[in-house]
Design goal:
It is a single chain. With 255 residues, this protein is an alpha/beta fold. The protein has helices at residues 16-27, 39-51, 66-80, 96-99, 109-137, 158-178, 199-202, 205-213, 223-234; strands spanning 7-11, 31-36, 55-60, 85-88, 140-145, 183-190, 245-248. It has a seven-stranded parallel β-sheet with strand order 3-2-1-4-5-6-7, sandwiched between helices. The longest helix has 29 residues, at 109-137. It is globular. The termini are far apart.
């Protein structure tokens, strides 16, 4: 029970990595608030956790809305009494299998704004909303899901790279600003993980084979590969870590 007695808010918790994190956190003793726009899927995760004996609630959360974030944090405190952990997991790609490889000159302003709003502004708003309650709780852990593409470049995905790089540096800034209050912030950098967000890319057999061939461990990641890393950062086991980057990529960026 590595999170016994803790309360966690996970954005994008209705499916993929967020759902895996929510289920794992609950198994490890946390009470979980699942924030997402996907209500049906989010309530399914809520029900699964409840059926397994855990504690969870779903709340509608648009991460680009400051008022939605205020409501989500308030729901955590109202239902479970405090907030200890925030996982800024919600994110979007640059537009599916083709958009994800868009070069700078081919990126529309609308696509740029959409990706930056969700991936970067969403993390900022979540962090801003969570800090006062973490301060009242005597500390907390913020885990921001970036990407290997927040560390290295590629042949496209300009807005996605920029947004995930912003998450990386916002995490470090947050860590320095709030370390003295017992609030930690770390970023997680997954490689290619088999989730609904990557489904369009992975549905292309040639692209799928290419990604596996470039991954030294010889397979793509699954949501639990990331969830266990997030669990470590959420727990007191990582109490001497803040402003750090946890890379979970099968060796991709080691090359």
């Amino acid at each position: 029970m590595r999170l016994e007695g803790k309360v966690a808010l996970i954005s994008g918790g209705a499916r993929g990595m967020g759902a895996a994190e929510a289920r794992l956190f609950a198994r490890e003793g946390a009470s979980v608030v699942i924030g997402d726009l996907l209500e049906e899927e989010g309530r399914q995760v809520e029900a699964q956790i409840g059926e397994a004996g855990g504690h969870a609630i779903f709340i509608r959360l648009d991460v680009t809305s400051e008022s939605d974030w205020s409501d989500a944090v308030a729901a955590a405190v109202s239902r479970f009494g405090k907030l200890d952990i925030l996982v800024n997991n919600a994110g979007v790609s640059s537009g599916g299998a083709s958009g994800a490889r868009t070069k700078v000159e081919d990126t529309t302003v609308e696509a740029w704004d959409r990706v930056m709003d969700v991936n970067a502004k969403g993390v900022f708003l979540g962090t801003k909303a969570a800090i006062p309650e973490m301060r009242r709780a005597g500390g907390g852990s913020i885990i921001n899901i970036s990407s290997i593409y927040g560390l290295v470049g590629s042949d496209g995905g300009s807005a996605y790279h920029a947004s995930k790089g912003a998450v990386r540096l916002l995490t470090k800034s947050t860590a320095i600003q709030y370390a003295g209050e017992g609030i930690r912030a770390n970023s997680v950098h997954p490689g290619f993980i088999d989730t609904p967000m990557t489904a369009a890319t992975l549905a292309d057999p040639e692209r799928n084979r290419s990604l596996i061939a470039r991954t030294p461990v010889g397979r793509l990641g699954v949501p639990d590969d990331v969830a266990y890393g997030v669990l470590f950062l959420a727990s007191d086991e990582s109490s001497f870590m803040t402003g750090s980057e946890l890379v979970i990529d099968g060796g991709w960026t080691a090359q």
